[in-house]
Amino acid sequence: MSEKEEKPRKKTRREFLQNLGIVGVGSILAGSAILAGINYDRRKTAGQRVKVLTAENELLEIEKNDATKVVKASPESFTYLQKQGREGLAGRRFVMVIDLSKCRNARKCMAACNEAHHLRPEQHHINVLKMQESVDTPAYYMPKPCQHCDNPPCTAVCPVDATFKRQDGIVLIDNERCIGCRFCIAACPYSARVFNWAEPIHSLEDKDTPYNVELNVPQRKGTISKCLFSADRLREGKLPYCVSACPNGVYYFGDENEDAVTNGTTKETVRFKKLLEDNGGYTLMPELGTHPRVYYLPPKGKEYPFQEKDKEEAAEHLG
Amino acid sequence: MSTNLNTEKITSDLLKSIRLNKSFVLWMGFLGTALLICGYAYFLQLRDGLVVTGLGDYVSWGLYISNFVFFVAVSLIGMLISAVLGLTGQKWSEPLARIAEIIALAFAAVAGLVIVMDMGHPERLLNVFIYGRVQSPIVWDVTVVTIYILISTLLLYIPLIPDFKICYDKFDKMHPALRNIYKVLSLNWNGTIEQKKIIQQSIRALSIFIIPVALAIHTVTSWLFASTSRVGWDSSVFGPYFVTGAFVAGTAAVAIAMYFYRYNYKLQDYITEMHFDKIGKLLVLVSLVYLYFNLNEYMVPGYKLKKFDAMHLHELFVGRHALTFWSVQILGLILPIILLVFKPFRKPLPLLLISIMVLVGAWFKRYIIVSPTMEHPFLPIQNVPMNWKIYSPTTTEILITILPMILALIIITVLSKVIPIIPVQETIEHMEENK
Description:
The complex is a heterodimer of chains A (319) and B (435). Chain A is of the alpha+beta class and 319 residues long. Helix content of chain A is 28%, strand content 17%. Chain A has one domain (93-318): 2-Layer Sandwich (Alpha-Beta Plaits), CATH 3.30.70.20. In chain A, the strands form five sheets. In chain A, strands 12-11-10-3-13 form a five-stranded mixed beta sheet. The longest helix of chain A is centred in the N-terminal third of the chain and has 33 residues, at 13-45. Chain A is elongated. The termini of chain A are far apart. Chain B has 435 residues and is mostly helical. Chain B has one domain (7-434): Up-down Bundle (Formate dehydrogenase/DMSO reductase fold). The mean pLDDT of chain B is 94. Chains A and B meet through strand 4, helix 5, helix 6 and strand 8 of A and helix 6, helix 7 and helix 13 of B.
């Protein structure tokens, strides 16, 4: 015991300071060598500066050597699609305006939508309804997509955040997370949601396609599907499938922030607020407080009459 | 309770049921076969998707969700009998407490399974815990149902501790491995005053705690509907309406169980006509409260007849669901109240028959609450197959709906074969007190 206690004392204070000095000087020398090397490298390439544009749209100038190439995740990969799909398009607030006076029940919107989203014929992201409010008021055709509410009852009730509201106003569904409880169907007052009761029609061909949350393809058995405002097309700067497919100029689509909407048929761009103001625009069931992003223009001065054969069906919902 | 009872007789009477006999094997064989058939139906649903049901994009909740509400409803009886009646000093209810707890536990546990059976992706159940969002009433439901199952298990187990000791002592001919299970479960009970105090205190604490939890499970279940804006669900009385309805269903279930235990286990000395009489009175009381909520629920919107309420109520009162609606209200609620006011109808057999009527009515009542509402959304149902407008369940779906009922019966049957259905220790103590 006593021997061990004596051992540490053998190293004197003097020796310790000597060692410290060696280590200290060594570090300083090594440090200055590294620094000199870096400075030399800098001097060699000074003046080679490049301009870069940041994601926030800011133009900066940096040393070329400081720039490193960003390795993009493959745009085809699932995680990349999930990330961009959940974030949405920054700075945009998408809106749709549906002019009921133009609708001729051509149903090209429904066909284009079903084709794009690999839906069965009886499933509708967008459904052209035969409407009548009361016995003496006229019947009319009303295309009804998801209303992409700003206060969506469907996303509130989802237990797993499978359906969500993006920064650009779009409400999407992630069928990789959906547990299939169908609470969102119960909560949606606009009957905008559909469910894959059986194996989806294209499930064999879509087997190896990575899931794109902005297109909701591949569809999956046992999960919800819904109108996505064609988020995949918007990312490419194109109009939604239904809007482009309409032969009758029913749909306007655009960005509330820009106060501009474009007609899918005529490609004419007009002021969004003015369009609503001039034509008495309204939303469906505003009393529910859902704040839809889909606006309607009343069926005033229709060129196409409501068809006799559809009258009975329209009257069914009169109550 | 007859006066010629002594400790020895009580113990042997109440423990007599714990043995394998022919009728038990036959009954379990029947339940097992039925479970296999229904299990195959569920396998078909797992393989092919919910397309095997009669559900569609409009009526997307049907038998399964009605069944879920029914199971949660029945499970509330544990709280009513062991907590409310227990805490208010209703001594007569003590022999029934364990029956009520067994029913509560079986139905609450199975309710969790019922909701899984309704899911399109049951294998993603864990997502509820991984990605759970507090905004969703489903997450609230999962939370409170789990707590309720835990407390109900404790409320069943803790009063059983002395009885497990009695079982261990009495079953000296049993296989030692099985007998030791009773020993382990009895937690070295030896009946000291200190141990008795611990048990009394914990039962009391749990009885108090279970009241808000039980109210929560059924209130939250009602909010699965009331949190939407649909006609028929968009109601502010849904919480108490569901809770009072649950007491009706649960009381009827206990009355039915009492009858079968009394005759099959020869418990005439313990579950007496007095008990049936009291349970009959309790059933009248809870049914009257439920009737009051029904009046509110249907008369208030029925008086105003707002457009969509009118459509919905029309279907219920005189339309497609009228037969079910009025059968449920009259045979399952009003008639039982009237009959049970008279003492002869509170005898065991009439009470059994009335209770079966009430319980069947209670199931169809849930169906009437869930499905007709979904047939009347705000916007018309168009451009879809005809069978999506009007919901009619398929055979597969009905079999899958029966599956949880069989499961609950199996749990109840097995539990009442391994534990004494009437608290032994308590009965002995009461007998001694009354001497």
